[in-house]
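Discussion board: Methods & Data

I've been asked by a reviewer to show the raw model output for two of the constructs in my manuscript, not just the figures. I'm not sure how much to include, so I'm pasting the format here to get opinions. Each protein appears as its amino acid sequence followed by a line of discrete structure tokens. Is this the kind of thing reviewers expect to see in a supplement, or should I convert it first? Here is construct A:
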Amino acid sequence: MNGLTFVELIISISIASILIALGIPAFIKWTQDTAIRSQAEQLQAAIMATRSYAVSRNERVKLQFIDNKGLASWEIGCVRVSVNCPEIIESKLFSENNPIRIGVNTSDTNTEIDTVLSIGSGLPAVISYSAQGAALNQIIDNEITRLDVMHSMSSKAQRLIIKIEMSGEVTICNPNIKKPKSGSC
């Protein structure tokens, strides 16, 4: 009869347990990094939608982050409410259970990319776009120039940065990737 002896079975289970124990931390970090990437891409899409609404409605439109605890909850609405441009065009609320948080930097604070913004810093905050798609009020009204997207329960998870240029361009970058590689800040 071909089969495993009890000792062989115990050794096989021990080896499998060790391999699983070694892989769990990497899997957890991977899922956290994936959640951060997904949230950053959603925020980038909301910022780009704000710009698109401003151009298509020929009005100044703002994206406002409304939670001061770092949740990425937001509202898109017109600066000057009219029939063509309502106070709230679109909004997204996140639950307290969402572990992904943000901190923002405005044009009046010159923080280096290597410096991690604290969760909730600068919130609530706003970025607005002109009818031409420019974010010109970054200088005048100290609006958002950068968002840090991070995990609230893990300092080992990656941090992504969303940079908003005055021209209206929005990019996601990883401050841990050294220049000139793709994805670096």
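Construct B, same format:
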Amino acid sequence: MTLRLASIVRKEFIQILRDPRTLIMTLIIPIMQLFLLGYAATTDIKNIPIAVWDQSRSPQSRALLDAFRSANYFTIAYEVGSQQDIQTLIEDGRVRAALIIPPDYSLRLAEGDAQVSVILDGSDATSGSTALSASQLIGQSYSTKIMTETASRLGRGSGITPPIQFLTQVWYNPDLASAYFMIPGVIGMILYVITTMLTATTIVRERERGTIEQLIVTPIRSWELVVGKVLPYVVLGFFDTFEVLILGHWWFGVPVRGSLALVLESSGLLLLSSLGIGLFASTIANTQQEAMLVVWMTLLPSIFLSGFFFPLEAMPPFLQAVAYMIPLRYYLIIIRSLLIKGVGLAAIQTEFMTLAVFGLVIMGAAAVRFRKRLD
């Protein structure tokens, strides 16, 4: 019995070693999960980019800005001269918050009733909540510091009111509802994951069953075969987009403030990338199991580094750099900006063009390799 069991175990190990690609991918995926979960799975957001409109330009206003810098929660990325500049920067996604210091700040501070406005981008509920809490904490800490200095100068220990009031405004999502952030992301995730997996496994299934050879010997051209295989999944992808969009708006109350035409166009560009990845995986894999492993090698970074679950600002710099190579990252920025902020093409043109380039390159390379595999 022991010899028979040992023979079976030996046979299985031989089978595993005969398929080195599957073995390598099986060993690499846990390492990818370890590093992605270890570094990317965090909500400890720091260095949130903000814009500052300092109308006072006084030593007192500069001291307030120093308090924001020293807290490490914010990075002053832009100094602007109007609220329109602030709106443009927030719509483009270049800043998550804005600090407005009024012209009479130093005078009102001396009188003990200064007011400072903080505008927050609520389209990202996680970053918005962190920015809201951090700004309130910095405001309270700075006010307490000034109160202590004033009390020491006047020789009193109580009876002094806080000299600064921080007035916060949350744009696009005043309640910071997480559904506003997650539902648009679900659209991108469904488009990306389902179409990639279905495309890869369906073509490999044809090869496993031997029906792909029957298609090759027919008068069908190679490009017709490629288009015919992926077109049904384009239709399914758009159907899923409308399905999640309608249910998210009707059930969860997620707004649809932007152009539906832009939503469809950007979804089509994402489908180019996802279908291209599926086609490419089908040219590498010989079995459905191999195809699934190849797809998961690309899906894991996309899920964790696209900004779907965790804000990119919370990740280490090297993972933020890797995120620029992920098409889903750009789509999530586009879909959230369209649905929640209601922006136009001008605000998302960089992400839109980048997604188009990714889609054309990936689909083109995959189609060429797929045709060569057929030949």
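Answer (T.O., handling editor elsewhere):
This is acceptable in a supplement if you add a one-line summary per construct. For B, something like: The CA atoms of residues 18 and 233 lie 33 Å apart.
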